[in-house]
Every structure is written in C-alpha cells, then in structure tokens.
C-alpha cells in the first residue's frame, strides 16, 4: 500500500492554462501506479490535491499561484439570503446518494450539459469514455448525488467521502433548469450531508480570484484556503 513517504510524483510540460488566458500551467500528478486508498486520498486532499478519475493532481506552476485549494467549515456555515432562497425554490426536488457508476441516463444528462454550457471548453465534445474516465474510474468511496424532479433527472453531483469531509468533484444539471441554481443547491445538500455524518469539511476544489466562474465558492462562508501549507480563513474581498 502506498503512503505519503513512498509516493512518486510527475510534472507535465507547460501547457495552456484552462482558467486564465495567456498563461501557461504545469500540473503535478501522483504516479498512476500508486495504490491510493481512502486514507491516502484524504491526506492528499488536505495537501491540496484533487481527483479526476484515477488521477490525483494539483497545480504546480513555477511563476503563478493563482489556483488556491479551498474548503468549507460545515459546522460554522449559515446560508445567506440567496442560499435560503435556493433551498426554498428546490423543496420539490428529491435527492439520494448512489455508488458512482456509468449509466446511459447519467451520460445523457452529462452530454446535454456539456453541449449546452461548455462548447468552448476542453470537455467538448462529450463522450461516454470521457464521462467514465472523469467521474467513474478510480472511484474510492465515491458517490453520485441524484437530484430528481419527479421522474426527471435534474442534476448529478459526483461526491467523494474522505476521512475528514466530503469532496465535491463535479456537478451537472439540466440546462433548462438553470434558474433553479442547482449547482448551489448541490453544494448546500453536501454541506448538510457532511454535518449528518459528523465530518468537519467540504472540499470545493480550487478558487482563482481572477476567474469569474469560481466566484460562487466564496459565497459559502466560512471558507478556508490552503496557503504555504496551512489552512486559513480566506479573505476574498
């Protein structure tokens, strides 16, 4: 079994940054041959790593530190007025956690979401292989949050269970339901699930001050940022 002392890491060559124009990025990966169990995955997450399929990675850019790992302290969280409005608006939804696995029903929602909202991104065009390699492969105590409106699959959130919290991997939803703010709703649901399990944190991935798409993360407070090896409350304003 691998541990932090025995892990080997690899860095990619510089490549175009997915978030900030005119910048190059370098990504550090855990050796894909490593046997990463839940304990090690939890330790890596606390060090700022994320999971994408069977890959564990974090930014490792020589001249840029814009990508900041963030996590929410769930016991101290209180929804603001807008978040309470989102909860009220979605009281008619039903939610359940199921083991992360491929299904044609999930893929159809994924493809619809990517085609409508991310045609300009590196995930377009979608494919079944892409869905599986991103959201199913490498799953370690990994789950899908099914969000349903009657018989309709309204949203799907990939969630990993860690020793000290939940890790929000990715959320998709039916584009025609955009006014329901299902991305926010999925985070609020995961906060309550972490509380129910007695877990202190919800990991929300990376936050970039200059990236508008990530600004929603700082609306969940108190949020902590990992800087210089220490988690401290993020001052985003």
UniProtKB/TrEMBL annotation:
| Name assigned to this protein | Aspartate/glutamate leucyltransferase
An example GO CC term for this entry is:
cytoplasm
Q: Which UniProt keywords apply?
A: Acyltransferase, Cytoplasm, Transferase
Record EC number: 2.3.2.29
Report the residue ranges that make up the N-end rule aminoacyl transferase C-terminal domain in this protein.
Answer: 106-226
Q: Which Pfam families match?
A: ATE_C, ATE_N
Q: Which GO terms describe its biological process?
A: ubiquitin-dependent protein catabolic process via the N-end rule pathway
Transmembrane domains' residue ranges: none
Q: From which lineage does this chain's organism come?
A: Bacteria, Pseudomonadati, Pseudomonadota, Gammaproteobacteria, Pseudomonadales
Give the organism, scientific name.
Marinobacter vinifirmus
**Primary residence:** cytoplasm
Record-stated family:
Belongs to the R-transferase family. Bpt subfamily.
Q: Which GO terms describe its molecular function?
A: arginyl-tRNA--protein transferase activity; leucyl-tRNA--protein transferase activity
Describe the location of the N-end aminoacyl transferase N-terminal domain by residue ranges: 15-85
Could you tell me the superkingdom of the organism this chain comes from? Bacteria
| Biological role | Functions in the N-end rule pathway of protein degradation where it conjugates Leu from its aminoacyl-tRNA to the N-termini of proteins containing an N-terminal aspartate or glutamate.
The subcellular localization recorded is: Cytoplasm
Q: What class of enzyme is it?
A: transferase
Q: Which reaction does it catalyse?
A: N-terminal L-aspartyl-[protein] + L-leucyl-tRNA(Leu) = N-terminal L-leucyl-L-aspartyl-[protein] + tRNA(Leu) + H(+); N-terminal L-glutamyl-[protein] + L-leucyl-tRNA(Leu) = N-terminal L-leucyl-L-glutamyl-[protein] + tRNA(Leu) + H(+)
InterPro entries in the cross-refs:
Acyl_CoA_acyltransferase (IPR016181), Asp_Glu_LeuTrfase (IPR017138), N-end_Aminoacyl_Trfase (IPR030700), N-end_Aminoacyl_Trfase_C (IPR007472), N-end_Aminoacyl_Trfase_N (IPR007471)
């Amino acid at each position: 079994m691998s541990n932090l002392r025995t892990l080997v890491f690899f860095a990619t060559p510089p490549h175009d940054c997915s978030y900030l124009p005119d910048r190059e990025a370098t990504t550090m990966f855990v050796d894909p041959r490593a046997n990463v169990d839940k304990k090690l995955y939890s330790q890596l997450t606390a060090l700022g790593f994320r999971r994408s399929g069977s890959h564990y990675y974090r930014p490792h850019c020589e001249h840029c530190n814009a990508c900041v790992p963030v996590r929410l302290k769930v016991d101290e969280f209180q929804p603001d007025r807008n978040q309470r409005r989102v909860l009220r608006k979605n009281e008619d939804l039903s939610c359940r956690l199921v083991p992360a696995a491929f299904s044609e029903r999930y893929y159809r929602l994924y493809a619809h979401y990517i085609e409508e909202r991310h045609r300009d991104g590196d995930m377009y065009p979608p494919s079944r292989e892409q869905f599986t390699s991103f959201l199913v492969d490498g799953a370690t105590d990994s789950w899908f949050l099914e969000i349903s409106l009657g018989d309709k699959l309204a949203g799907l959130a990939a969630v990993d269970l860690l020793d000290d919290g939940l890790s929000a991997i990715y959320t998709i939803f039916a584009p025609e339901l955009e006014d329901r703010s299902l991305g926010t709703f999925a985070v609020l649901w995961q906060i309550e699930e972490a509380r129910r399990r007695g877990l202190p944190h919800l990991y929300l991935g990376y936050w970039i001050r200059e990236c508008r798409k990530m600004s929603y993360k700082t609306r969940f407070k108190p949020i902590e940022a990992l800087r210089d090896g220490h988690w401290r409350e993020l001052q985003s304003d």
